[in-house]
Amino acid sequence: MANSKYEYVKSFELQDNLLPQTWIVLRIDGCHFHKFSQIHNFEKPNDEHALQLLNECATDMLEEFPDIIFAYGMSDEYSFVIKKSSTFHQRRASKIVSLVVSFFSSTYVMKWHKFFPHKELQYPPSFDGRVVCYPSTSILRDYLAWRQVDCHINNQYNTCFWMLVKSGKSATEAQNILKGTQTQEKNELLFQQFGINYNTLPAVFRKGSCIFKEEVEEVVKCTEAGDPIKRRRRKIVVQHCDIIGKNLWDEHPYLLSDK
Amino acid sequence: MANSKYEYVKSFELQDNLLPQTWIVLRIDGCHFHKFSQIHNFEKPNDEHALQLLNECATDMLEEFPDIIFAYGMSDEYSFVIKKSSTFHQRRASKIVSLVVSFFSSTYVMKWHKFFPHKELQYPPSFDGRVVCYPSTSILRDYLAWRQVDCHINNQYNTCFWMLVKSGKSATEAQNILKGTQTQEKNELLFQQFGINYNTLPAVFRKGSCIFKEEVEEVVKCTEAGDPIKRRRRKIVVQHCDIIGKNLWDEHPYLLSDK
Amino acid sequence: MANSKYEYVKSFELQDNLLPQTWIVLRIDGCHFHKFSQIHNFEKPNDEHALQLLNECATDMLEEFPDIIFAYGMSDEYSFVIKKSSTFHQRRASKIVSLVVSFFSSTYVMKWHKFFPHKELQYPPSFDGRVVCYPSTSILRDYLAWRQVDCHINNQYNTCFWMLVKSGKSATEAQNILKGTQTQEKNELLFQQFGINYNTLPAVFRKGSCIFKEEVEEVVKCTEAGDPIKRRRRKIVVQHCDIIGKNLWDEHPYLLSDK
Amino acid sequence: MANSKYEYVKSFELQDNLLPQTWIVLRIDGCHFHKFSQIHNFEKPNDEHALQLLNECATDMLEEFPDIIFAYGMSDEYSFVIKKSSTFHQRRASKIVSLVVSFFSSTYVMKWHKFFPHKELQYPPSFDGRVVCYPSTSILRDYLAWRQVDCHINNQYNTCFWMLVKSGKSATEAQNILKGTQTQEKNELLFQQFGINYNTLPAVFRKGSCIFKEEVEEVVKCTEAGDPIKRRRRKIVVQHCDIIGKNLWDEHPYLLSDK
Question: What is the mean pLDDT of residues B57-77?
């Protein structure tokens, strides 16, 4: 039976290829994760296990999709940077978004028990995704800086907010106390009222998480004469470092070299 | 700390809204499911439990996304029809694709054990997704017909192929026997060599699965005089019926009425 | 000499095909025509010759592009309706927009002297263009109604404004008098202060211009017996009629039948 | 009278903004110019006046649209390079394409008589247009090189073809003689059969035309002491130089500096 009579419906599929030779950033966001974190009793303002779960999912992404060369995550969002020269699925936006989000979602559910062995997953979590193209490395770095500044702003605010709430304030009172305060004032509030030095809090909360392939030199085995035989390989690492300045990029020049 | 210095990067997000007042079809496909079905020992040509799992995921989709008014699935793919008047996420393609695929993937993993209690999920499954707009109901019905004709063609071929293989032929021999055969010849092959009447095989294999909300009248309670108090409500049903002809649509006119 | 080394640059051309089986409306607008009409001393509020020139250009469009089945113009804008089934240049948006706008612009300059024999064209006029798809005939008719309502609102306002200015008011005074007035009040102002019955002004000003192919029956020649031999053909006509109600469409059912 | 009832039709206009911070190339092509050049008796293989007319239109484009920083033309096509940082009409593709093509077309018709004082324009010429974004300067230069290589290939072929035809061959004979010949062979054919040294033909034919703003230093006036007062300004120039190598770009570094 020929299917040709109906096949014309394929002509309604419009193309959505992304501009070649641009960095593709795919950002996923937890959908209604405010409610999700309440129902699953996530610790406030940061739940270490929830962050570790996200980081492990993101690490698996770099294994699964070799064209992802960098990932940056914080709170319930993750940005994946796909190399400029990638031709993954002919750079079709919907293919890329759907495959990445699908794999991330499946992995999140599969790994849940590893990080929450005593908590049942109550319902299927979902993530939305979007793709953006950045034509130059300098704009890409500004994108990453934008996310890390946001991480800082949100985390500092949330740390203050939850300390106030835990100390007995209502949510509204805490919001009013924080309204209009600057970075420095928030740091002082934490220090004077709660004895917390913000800059000594765990870097994973303050800086978010960067995942990338680090070039390392390994001893594979030794020759009969006892000399080590080494090889260079790339190993996926998770770090909680600054990505706004140039240090990370200077130390790992291959990351943004698109090779 | 103001984030404005970097916020310009948001201007690189281009809009991808879908044309209003058109039927949106979102089709998801299992990614590398040939390998996935081998590794998980799915029965050939059709694995009932795998199909039931997909159907349950799709049923949950209609609960989760009220704008989905119909779903049709077969093999490892599912098409979801979103109503013409939907303004779900302002009809942004990447939002819609990612959320639907994400929820489907999470659900698939969460429900795996219900359908395969004795099989471990070996790795995270993933699905790709795409959206297509259809401007009229008649073209939408042609789309659905296209998928059901495909279901028939594939299933009849696969049924023959696997019967031949199970009877001792090699894959290549089976392919050669089937090359160029028509519907009628395949039916005869099944009947004469294997005593199988194709049309009596389970409808779920031959027709695929349709999921929609059926209007039903229910007795809520009875009055003191014993008269039933009824109300109409919509109940999600799974059927394996013909969607090419007009019967289904005539019997359920509200399905495509976009209300 | 092979050109292949550089031909990869073609891969940066992204596709912009419009959804099949939808009405395509291409609207062009005079660019900075406020200034253009001043420099060329167009009569206010309406210059008959300028409108006739636009109408003749639009008429030539229907000759040149057979897929245009209707055009509606007013002031310095024109909307062209391309039939749903059109496959003109594979429905590529930029091809369609550029060709239509280019032909219109060339024609405008070429025909200028026919309508302004004693005025020199001072500089090249330009028009911008855009395409919009409408999935149903009823929405297409709402689009056309939208433009004709706009024509009425603008023309009534401009008629009042210029009568006030010609009677000695400054532009600001005229604007203040008209601020917040309704249709009925404007009609009364025209009648009481200037003795003008708005509804008797030329229809081309009040209703704009519709251009379409009318089916007519013509006597081609006569038989020897003196009986007329007729044939039906389509003849391009310009009318200034209502397009909001259903009369025009009922009388010319073939217009929106997409045949 | 409110227009709100119909204004919903505006929501069908989809956005088509081009990616920020990329070079926009807008290429226009004469539509059916083979026929146009025959009807207007253009000289073969190159008509100097027709090329001069196109060059003057393109020069006017650089005056009219300050964001165009370079133009390259040959045969009946012209490429306009819009600077990376341009926000002209919010980088909306259809606005940019339509305005540029419209102005070019109007100018072409208006200037026709300056270049063809004794030839009547027979019908309105039209041009199609398209936009492509290039993310880096190096790819932009490859685009320009692609066009100039094409200019060379086409012009050399056409020069041979028309010399053969003018010497008495039929079109088919000329095509057969040229089939499969390389650059060197074509040069030898021209030299041996017609005494033509290809490289001494006018550069406008062989290299096409480049239009850009050259920085020049001008003496504005002199001081009382007789010292010249100079100022730097940019002057639009037309050149027929090589754009594949780096000389032009090295000598005019501001061209691609996006300032």
Answer: 97
- Cis peptide bond prior to D45, omega within 30° of 0: yes
Contacts of B14 in chain D (CB under 8 A): 15, 17, 19
The pTM (predicted TM-score) of the whole model is 0.93
Residue C160, domain member (yes or no) = no
Measured between CA atoms, the residue of chain D closest to residue A139 is D21
Partners of chain A (3+ Cβ pairs below 8 A): B, C, D
Mean pLDDT by 10 residues, chain A (259 residues): 81 96 98 97 96 98 97 97 97 98 98 97 98 97 97 96 95 95 94 94 97 88 84 92 96 90
Q: Would you say residue D259 lies in a domain?
A: no
Measured CA to CA in angstroms, residue A64 lies from A1, A67, B121, C124, D236 at distances of: 39, 9, 17, 57, 53
C44 within domain boundaries: yes
Quick check: is D105 in a domain? Answer: yes
CB pair distance less than 8 Å for B21 and C133:
no
Of A8, A102, A149, the CB nearest to B102: A102
In chain A, the residue whose alpha carbon lies closest to the alpha carbon of D22 is A135
Cβ–Cβ below 8 Å for B19 and C136: no
What is the value of ipTM here, to two decimals? 0.93
Q: Which domain holds residue A83?
A: 17-144+203-207
CATH code for the domain in which residue A60 is found: 3.30.70.3000
> Rounded to whole angstroms, how far apart are CA atoms A159 and B155?
58
Which chain A residue is nearest to residue B89, measuring alpha carbons? A128
Chain B interface disruption, residue of D12, D90, D92, most B CBs within 10 A: D12
pLDDT > 70: percent of chain A:
99
Q: Residues of B with CB below 8 A from D12's CB? A: 19-21
Rg (CA), chain B: 22
Task: Give D-chain residues touching B131 at CB under 8 angstroms.
Answer: none
Q: Point out which residues pair with B129 in neighbouring strands.
A: B28
Q: How far apart are CA D73 and CA B170, in angstroms?
A: 62
**pLDDT tens digits for C33-56?**
999 999 999 999 999 999 999 999
Residue B212 to residues B17, B24, B101, B251, D110: CA-CA distances in angstroms?
Answer: 26, 16, 19, 13, 63
Per the structure, the count of domains in chain A is: 1
Pull the structure tokens for residue D13: 């206009």
DSSP state of A78: E
Contact list, B12 vs chain A (CB under 8 Å) = 132-134, 139
